[in-house]
Amino acid sequence: MSTQNIRDLAIELTIGLTGVCDEISGRSVFVNQLLRASSSIGANACEAKYAQSRADFVHKMEIALKECYETDYWLEILYRVRAISEEIYNQYKNMNGTIRRKLIASITTAKAVS
After folding, report:
1. What's 3's DSSP letter?
2. Cβ distance 92 to 68 under 8 Å?
3. Alpha-carbon separation of residue 67 from 25, 110, 114 (angstroms)
4. Cβ-based neighbours of 6, under 8 Å, separated by 6 or more
5. C-alpha distances out from residue 96 to 51, 53, 76, 85, 110, Å
6. Are 99 and 10 in contact (CB under 8 A)?
7. Tens of pLDDT, residues 69-96
8. What are 60-71's pLDDT values in tens digits?
9. Distance between CA 88 and CA 17 in Å, rounded?
10. How far apart are CA 101 and CA 31, in angstroms?
């Protein structure tokens, strides 16, 4: 999994979470927030690929990183209200953590090149 790019991992995360969220009832506000945040990771990373400048690239990747942190937040909320199991929580928290580390590395590299 470590050789996958951010976009592919983000798509995998969003598709997986969509399936998980389809099974959750009675928590629509949390589910909607989780799906919005997780899907925004890949969308912003994809936009960064076509950035107009290095600063624009960094900005879009930093937005994707913020969405990773928000995804973690909503995952934890759903876990704490017992809408998802510990196994599901850990699986997607780890997947999101992989994406986050890749984003941080990419942002750090882009900033160092300046």
Report:
1. T
2. no
3. 23, 19, 24
4. 41, 42, 45, 64, 99, 102, 103, 106
5. 23, 26, 12, 16, 21
6. yes
7. 999 999 999 999 999 999 999 999 999 9
8. 999 999 999 999
9. 9
10. 24
| Residue of 3, 8, 87, 19 lying closest to 41 (CA atoms) | 8
Is 47 in contact with 60 (CB distance < 8 Å)? yes
3-state secondary structure of 54: helix
C-alpha distances (whole Å) from 100 to each of 28, 82, 83, 104 are: 25, 25, 24, 6
Half-sphere exposure of 100 (CA within 13 A, CB side): 15
Look-up of token digits 């399936």: 19
Question: What is the distance in angstroms between the CA of the first residue and the CA of the last residue of the chain?
Answer: 29
Give the pair of three-digit tokens for residue 4.
């996958």
Q: How many CA atoms lie within 13 A of 20 on its CB side?
A: 27
